[in-house]
Amino acid sequence: MRRRTIFATAATAAAGTLLAACKDDPKEVAWSGPSGSPSTSTSPADDDPNAPTLTIAPAPGASVAPNEPVVVTAVNATLQTVTVTTGGKTVAGELDAEKTTWRSTSSLQFGKTYQVKASGVDSAGKPLEQTATFTTLKPSGTASITFQANAMTGLKNGGTYGVGQVVIVKFSKTPTDKKAALAAIKVTSEPQVEGRWYWVDNRTVHYRPEKFWAKGTKVSVAAKLHGVHLGKNVYGAENESISFTIGPARIAIADNATHYMRVTVDGVQVKNIPISMGKNGYVTTADGGRVLFPTRSGTHVVMSRELEHRMTSASYGVTDPKNPNYYDDLIKLCCRISYSGEFVHAAPWSVWAQGKQNVSHGCINIATSNAQWFYDNFRLGDPVIVKGTGRPQLIGDSAGAVWDVAWSKMTPES
C-alpha cells in the first residue's frame, strides 16, 4: 500500500503542490499553514521509509479466497483498534504483545465484502487511521468432508480403534486438484510414524502407516480445507479435525491351508479357532453375472459388530427356496469384514466342517462359543487377514484392502 501524507485541508494540499513544483529541492517545502505562519513539511511518506503508517492486507479492492488472513501492521507506530466487518458481523482477531500486528483468528466467508478500520498512534501520540475494503471470491461449488472408519460408519472423535484402522476422508464433491486436497490434510501421531495416502475412488482417500499402528498410538487429523482451491472453481467448505486412539493389537489370521484362524493379542497367541470359509464355486444371477463363493484373500478389518444380522441369498439374486444355494436366516454374533457381506459369525450348523473344509458362501464360520469370544473381544479396525483362498480382494472390497496396496504405489504426505 502506498504511503501518503494527508494535509489538513484541500487548499493546503494544493498550495504545497504548487510550491513543490517551484523548488529546486523537493525534499523540503515551505508553505503557509492555515494561520498564515511559515512552516515546513517533508515529501510524501512513500519517500520516507521511517514515516509512521498503518498497512492493511488484503489490499484495498482485492478479491481473495476466504482462507486469506486479514493482517494490519503498524510501522513506527502502535495499533489501538482494528475492526473487520461484513453484514453487521465482526471477524475475530488478536493483537500481538508489541501492538504492531493484528491478525484475524476466524475464517472469512465466501462471496462477501469486508470493511477494515484500523486506528493507532505514532511515537508522539499523533492519531493514525486507515481503512480498506476487499471482497472474497464466490466459488461455483464447495466441497465438505467426512472422516470415516469405513463406508458405513464414521470415525468417532475420541474413539478407540484397532491397529488396522485406516483414516478415510470422503469429499462431498470430487477434488480435481488432488495434490491441493492432500496438502491441506495433516495427520500426526504419537509416537510419530510416516503415513501415505491412496485414492480408492475420485472422492475417497485412505491413509495408513507402512505397517499396522502400534498399540496406544494417538492419531490426529486436521483438514484445513476452508478456502482451498480444489480445482475447477470448487473450494473447500470448512476446516475439520478429529483424534482417536489405537487399542490393543488384536489380529486374526484365517488360513485356508489349515482351516484354522490364529488369533494374537499384543503378539501373544490366545486362540486357534477351527473355521470353515467360502466354498469353491459360484452362482449365476438372473442378469447372467457370477457371484463367487470363496472368501477373499487379503487384509480385512472389522467394520461393524451386530448381535444379529439377517443374511439372505436374495442379496445376490437367489430367491428360489429349492435352489441349493438359497438361504434366509437370522445369524448371531456377526463381525463384518467386507462390504459384500463377509462376516466372522456363529455357525453351529457347520461345526462338522470347521477345521476341515470350506462350506460357506463366503463368510468365516466358527462355533458359537468361539463366535461369542470373538464378538466380545474384537473391535472396529482390528485386522482379519485371510490367506490362501485363491481369490484376492480388490481395493473396494473392504476398508482394510488398502493395507494390501504396495507402499511404493501410495502418495507420501506433503
From TrEMBL:
<dbReference type="InterPro" id="IPR041280">
    <property type="entry name" value="Big_10"/>
</dbReference>
<dbReference type="Pfam" id="PF03734">
    <property type="entry name" value="YkuD"/>
</dbReference>
<dbReference type="InterPro" id="IPR005490">
    <property type="entry name" value="LD_TPept_cat_dom"/>
</dbReference>
<dbReference type="InterPro" id="IPR038063">
    <property type="entry name" value="Transpep_catalytic_dom"/>
</dbReference>
<feature type="domain" description="L,D-TPase catalytic">
    <location>
        <begin position="250"/>
        <end position="387"/>
    </location>
</feature>
<dbReference type="InterPro" id="IPR050979">
    <property type="entry name" value="LD-transpeptidase"/>
</dbReference>
<keyword id="KW-0573">Peptidoglycan synthesis</keyword>
<dbReference type="Pfam" id="PF17964">
    <property type="entry name" value="Big_10"/>
</dbReference>
<keyword id="KW-0732">Signal</keyword>
<keyword id="KW-0808">Transferase</keyword>
<feature type="signal peptide">
    <location>
        <begin position="1"/>
        <end position="20"/>
    </location>
</feature>
<protein>
    <submittedName>
        <fullName>Ig-like domain-containing protein</fullName>
    </submittedName>
</protein>
<keyword id="KW-0961">Cell wall biogenesis/degradation</keyword>
<feature type="active site" description="Proton donor/acceptor">
    <location>
        <position position="345"/>
    </location>
</feature>
<keyword id="KW-0012">Acyltransferase</keyword>
<feature type="active site" description="Nucleophile">
    <location>
        <position position="363"/>
    </location>
</feature>
<keyword id="KW-0133">Cell shape</keyword>
<feature type="compositionally biased region" description="Low complexity">
    <location>
        <begin position="32"/>
        <end position="44"/>
    </location>
</feature>
<comment type="pathway">
    <text>Cell wall biogenesis; peptidoglycan biosynthesis.</text>
</comment>
<feature type="region of interest" description="Disordered">
    <location>
        <begin position="28"/>
        <end position="54"/>
    </location>
</feature>
